[in-house]
Amino acid sequence: LIVATDGGATSEITISKTHRCASAGVIILHPPEMPFATYTCATKAQQLDVMNKNLLPWRARATPLPPSIGDQTTDNAHAECMAIILMEEWLPRNIPVLLIMDSEAERSRYQELRQPENITNRFMIRSLMSGVSKCLGSRLARAIAYHQNTGETQSIFPNSTLSNLCRHANNWCYTPTGDQSLWKINQWGTGHPNAVWAIRSHQLNSSFSISPKNRYKDQLVPNRAFVSANQWVDNICNAILRFQRNAIHSQNPQELRRWLMPAVTLGITGPAFILTFNGKCLDRNATVAVENACDSEFVKRLATRPTQGLILRFKDTILLKPEMIGRQSHLRRSIEGKTKTHTRAMYVDSEYRRAIVHMYTAASGNSSKQFASDLKIATKSYKYLQCPCCVNILNLDNIGNSKHPSPHHLYSLQNGAVINSGLYGNLRHYRFYCINAAIHEVRDKMTQLLEDHLTLLFKLATQWGQNGFSILLNRAITGLIFLDQMPFHNAISTEPAYRKIKSSHRACLHPDDWILLVESLTTQHSSLAYDNFIRWPLVHQLAFIPANCYSETELEDGEYSPCDLISMGLIPLALQDTIIQFADELGARHSQDTKKQFLQQWQQVRAIALLRAISIAMTVGAQIAELKNSLISSLPAHALQNSCTDQQTSHRKSMDNASQPTSSSNHTVQPTPRKSPTHSNLNCFPCTGVTCSPYFISKTNLRPSIMHKSSVSCRRCQTTVAAIDIATSIEETLASNKNTLATFMANASRLRNITLDSVIHAISKIQPVPKLITSQHLQRSTKRNVYPLVTMATARLLSGTFGWQTSTYPTSLDLIFNRNSDFDDHSDGGKLCTCDLAPLFSLSPDNGCNTCGGSYVHISTATRVANFNKLQSSHSTSERIHSRSTKISVKHNKARRTHATGTSASTTNTKQPTDQRSLPLQDITNKTHAKLLNDPTRPSAPELQPITTVNHMLSNLIVYYFFQILAQSFNNILFTEFLFDLVKRDGCWTQFVATSRNEGHYASFFEALKQTHKTCIIPICDQYHWTILIRKFVGNGWRIFYADSLLQGSDHRLSQWKALFQDESLFTGTWTKVKIVQQTELECGARACLHGLCLALSNLNSSKIMNNIARINNLAARSRTMVYNICTEGQWHSQGWLNSIIGPQQT
Q1: CB-based contacts of 605, cutoff 8 Å, min separation 6
Q2: Cβ–Cβ contacts within 10 Å for residue 439, how many?
């Protein structure tokens, strides 16, 4: 029998809930019309003709699945397993079956379960059933055992040709040259007694025409006959899913009962016993259920803290997970209320608290006695927790009594830092209300950028149909309004099911309600809400600026709903699901390319939303750090005296409690000089561990850790030390027993390529077990399915001992401990052991082989660590000598300059503090050069660092920044960022020119294109490959040079760019394809920079330039180094090897 099985699962979203739909199907197909004996005797052309016809179905079985089984929702793994169960329970025993599947995971699981020895192995069953329903897995194992335990060992069809067919199909896995074909050998199976073949899905459409999703393009692998078998069962499963979807949207009770099964609380079938939790059976793993229960309890406890656990409270409703934004990122720490840019965290600083309370008191015109009273209140509460930026700018008393507030400020500022004051100093204040000039500028720029990207997204939505824009907007707004009104945990009022009853508390509104809101807030003196809504309508309607920021000035951190987090860049799952569903419809109605562009644009919107939140947080940190220092430094003497008196009083009370009281009542305390706040944090000590040592850091790309206590090692160093101890313990065990060593080597090298997993497997087989190895070291973690870090480090150290290369890219441990050049003790030419017996090993390299007298080949971990300590000590000595000589030379140079210039040294020392930026601001910006700091287009250091890395493709930020520097350095260079992307977006060059002129954009650029002394450079990145166009006036006419460092597909790309930039007015010229040197790795971006630079600056003809380039050795590395040097320094500087290529440059 030729049988095909398949399963499918999807989710259908409605306004009220999300429905899980799943189906499984089995189909038996007619074999080809030609008998197999005739087929084998036919010619190759006749065989191909037979296999190029669709198979026809004979019998089929299919069923929908319940939305959930036990505590697990039904997914694709459930459906695939159910399809195998249908087949096993349907077919009679001992019938030869050729099974066709498209799920390789289910295929391998099915093949393993059919092995009799695996059915009785509990650990093997647990491994095979990981990720699969427990009840379905046990039912499948029971069905397979039923077939295997029958007394009939012979097939009832002894003349089956299944084995012959499988032997014939083995030829399909190879090409005539002997190489593997597109149908791999691991997808094929023998026919003893049955065969399971893997066929890639989505090669055909439901109408059996070749699908555009086919990964093999116009080919069907292995042939149409067996691909059609998979498509038949796929059509059956999709039909059931369509019936389920229609029943959900129609809400017909009869259809709902027919196609939607109820949720299964207890398993369909199961083992002899079963565990339940909260009335549901644990369908997969009891450990996972316990972890989920602990996580739920942990979330409930964190939710009671107003400023913490915000992400955890909404982990089921927001798209962003904690691990996606990093443990110490600005966004995560600001959301959790822990970042120093948050005023509440800064309010703990006593000096800052005095400064801001004094500012409030001085602005209100109160006396020093009132200041002392307010300070006591502020110490016990957050009454004066106000934004220092706004307090410093505004006069609270005048604004509080003013009848006509400034149009920039929506609300009056009075009664301290209460909810409606407008000064409550959390990050929400800075995202919407703060009037600091720098914060306001960044906020407006990032909001405008977000609005532009949302406009492009909805512009793509218009290709859905006539009402695509309004349909997408209506779906998104409806889903967000429904989510905003759902209950959530309010940590301020400690209500677990809090609802926003008042409309003024809601973040999302209908467009008509938005208009009513902004019109009601528009007065004669303030139209801020109306102006903002007209300026950024999509940002407002999608809650990136929520409605409650106008109606309710401030919200406590614990009162945030999922929709209130959108302004932080956290997208709710409801909005994400709406976008995904609309993208699927867009692909079905228009094209898959449009769907891809739509999803890519949505990714841009998400990235800009996150960047907006992070940019505001970073700017706030910089501004508040400066303001904090200025506030503290401007404190008057009486405030400082009160501070010092309080400190001395508390110190005297503690001393009185520890000893006898002394008669010092007349003692007056003088205020001590206050230290600079930049030197107050002295509890930072360097780590003293091995991986943070100077020699280790100098040889790797690691950074030393900073600890809060002295003489303490970080976790990385502790893990390395533990790995060294375990590796030494293992080597002691291996050295003491030759048989154990031989078994270890055999287990480690049982595969062709030795990997870390095979080394760990060999460690687990050592008998007796080394004393430092525990069972936890050899167990994979439950969630990530990886071994502990100490185990991986131990495996790497053992690989260095025996000279095994377990990974392509070396880690820091490999660079330090596993390099033979540093630790080879046999470099003196001594005799090595050449015995053919089991490999010998000794902890001491001085001992020789008892048989041949040679030295052992393997260097132990203890020996390598000892050699590392020697190298480290010598490195430390040389560093001290170098540091001492450097200090002496600097001292003599300084004295020489002072003697030559008189008082210039003292003048320099006097001016130096005024020119330096404050240390807190310098730490936040992490930039030292003023020129680089003022250049917003300069890529960050992590983006610049990998430029020189082999096979690293340059990003558009690097390439555009390079040509921007070139255009700033030479007046004849004409360059505009994203020009190719804009032209491709509009369809062609002429359409781009017409659109830009109608919108009033790029007018100066179009005029510059007409000037003959201008050379236009257009870098192009398409399909992960860089090419470049250079338009230049040569002789009596324009020439357009096309440079492509990849020969394959170069002519096709040239024809594409010709058609795209076809123009007879502005972009005219004769196209010339430049003959180039083929790239050796992914240096196409650096080569595009080199080609554009040389063709634009040189007066030589293109052939001469390319001949000069061909003479350069190691062209890829030199091109990368050139781009790195220019982009890092931020300015153009000529390089010696370029002069021989360019010749006389243009002026």
Answers
A1: 450, 453, 454, 457
A2: 23
Nearest 5°: the CA angle 926, 931, 936 is 70
Residue 847 corresponds to which tokens in the numbers above?
């001992």
- Each residue of 128-159: pLDDT tens digit? 666 677 778 778 877 887 766 654 445 555 66
Q: Which residue(s) pair with 1109 in the sheet?
A: none
User: How many angstroms separate the CA atoms of 192 and 186, rounded?
Assistant: 16
| Phi-psi group of 481: left, alpha or beta (phi > 0 → left; psi -120 to 50 → alpha; rest → beta) | alpha
Answer yes or no: are the C-beta atoms of 1141 and 1101 closer than 8 Å: no
- DSSP secondary structure code for residue 777 in this structure: G
CA distance 552 to 432: 12
Element housing 1082 (H / E): none
| Residue 464, token pair as written in the block | 């859905």
Strands 495-498 and 488-490: antiparallel
E strand or H helix at 571: none
Q: For residue 960, which of 941, 944, 942, 937 has the smallest C-alpha distance?
A: 937
The strand pairing partners of 176, in sequence order, are none
Residue 100: exposed, middle, or buried by beta-carbon count in 10 A (0-12, 13-18, 19+)?
buried
Tokens of 183: 């149908």
- Which tokens sit at 234? 């796929």
155 contact partners, CB below 8 Å, separation of at least 6: 94, 95, 96, 193
Query: Is the N-terminal amide bond of 677 cis, ω within 30° of 0?
Result: no
- Which residue bears the tokens 């000589």? 885
Q: Residue 642 to residues 616, 639, 903: CA-CA distances in angstroms? A: 36, 5, 41
Q: Token pair 């528009």 is at which residue?
A: 522
d(CA 152, CA 146): 12
Query: What's the burial of 262, exposed, middle or buried (CB within 10 Å: 0-12/13-18/19+)?
Result: exposed
CA atoms within 13 A on the CB side of 682: 5
The pLDDT tens digits of the residues spanning 695-741 come to 888 888 788 888 878 788 888 999 999 999 999 989 888 888 878 88
The C-alpha angle with vertex 585 and arms to 582 and 590, in degrees rounded to 5, equals 120
